[in-house]
Amino acid sequence: MNVRQVGRAFFADPATAAGTIIVITFLVLALFGPIIAPYSPTKQHSNAIRQPPSLNHLFGTDRLGRDLFSRVVYGARDILALAGGGTALAVVLGTLIGVSTTYLGGWIEELVFRLFDGILALPALLLALLLLGAVGPSRTGVLLVIVVVYTPIVARVVRSVVLSLKPRGFIEAARMRNERLSYILWRELLPLVAPTLAVEAALRFSYAIFLVASLGFLGIGVQPPNPDWGLMVLEARNEAVLAPWSLYVPATAIALLVIGVNLMAEGVRRALNT
Question: Which of 58, 96, 130, 247 is spaced 20 to 30 A from 269 at the CA atom?
């Protein structure tokens, strides 16, 4: 299947197209936030505390008079950068470890995947608490959490594919030709792993978005006064009566982005399986 056919299959479903539009919208907000946002995300307006949505403040203001639209726009940059960067690192590391150790087999494979089983036995949030307790709440700490949580999952998915490919004739033929190990791993195996890996990467990205937001809500992720969406929900949890928009705006942003990425992931899976 060529690129044009994959693209046509990807956009054949209206839900996938809608999800793509949502994600692109948030990407534009993240890239051009300083141009789009009318105010500083941390500036407090003492004369505009808990203002409902209006022409001056499209999404209203919070308990400190900060413009919620500006905070959502700037928050998009953090959540996409952390979730995207962490997912990319996890996919790269998981692929390298999964392909190489599974092909080589033996005690190295056994040791690596028993270690990964131990990591996966811990709930993601509990593992995040342990890691952030050691390194402290920060952007770097959140990035580390995503990499540690999702690298074992990606590696196990890659391992399952490589195990099904190892007995194939083309691998044996490559060995008979005395091809280098690097050639077999990256020229023979990796292209066949890539379709499954693309779907897995999209799914991990959506989970990473939710994980970043969850850490912010627990107060152990990106720290104030940064406009983190999860942190915004945390700060507005007691404002549901006085200023409900300050709670609903960041919560809706999180939900829309996660839904958009999931719809895209489904489109990727369908397009590659067509």
Answer: 96
Q: Are 267 and 16 in contact (CB under 8 A)?
A: yes
CA 267 to CA 120: how far, in whole Å?
A: 27
Give the global pTM: 0.87
Cα–Cα distance between 181 and 178 in angstroms, integer? Answer: 9
- The whole-angstrom separation of Cα 105 and Cα 107 is 7
Contact between 23 and 80 (Cβ < 8 Å): no
Domain covering 71-273, topology: MetI-like fold (1.10.3720)
